[in-house]
Amino acid sequence: MNNRPMMTIKRSRFAKGFDTVTLLAYLAGIIYLIFMWGQLPDEVPGHYNGAGEVDRWGSKWELILLPVIALFLFAFMAFMERHPEWHNYMNLNENNIEFQYKNSMLLLNVLKNECVLFFTYLHFKTVQVALGKAASLGIGFLPIFIGITIGSLIYFAIRSFKNK
């Protein structure tokens, strides 16, 4: 890792656009929570089981944790995205280093934004359940989250292996 060159690599338009969409959705979720705060009951869903059903109720103040965790994830993963020389690679060589750095940066960008969007959705849906506008997250939430995340990992791993 110490002998990997640092390279200045421009972020793609896709990465910048995905960040923008994610941040707008995140801010909309915060604004939604602020507007709905007075209508929320004192106890809101605090945890869901694998089927998306509420299995623990907690204080409405716990809702603040979801956007805080999402913001931390976004900041940390954005920092790591900007340092591809710190990432783990297989078959890294002089001929493919720029592609591998770009691929790894884009992978982190996609995972970062997916996580924040899922946290934002979870945050929104929890408010909906607390207000009685929804019964649960739905049985599809967990498989969709896992499927999209693993699908992204597989896609970028295949790209990496093809360009060794």
UniProtKB/TrEMBL annotation:
Alphabetical UniProt keywords: Membrane, Transmembrane, Transmembrane helix
InterPro entries noted in UniProt: DUF1648
Keyword Membrane part of the UniProt annotation: yes
Domain of life according to the entry: Bacteria
Domain DUF1648, first and last residues per copy: 27-70
UniProt KW Transmembrane helix keyword: yes
Transmembrane stretches, start-end: 21-40, 60-80, 106-124, 136-158
Name the UniProt record assigns to this protein: DUF1648 domain-containing protein
Organism: Sporosarcina contaminans
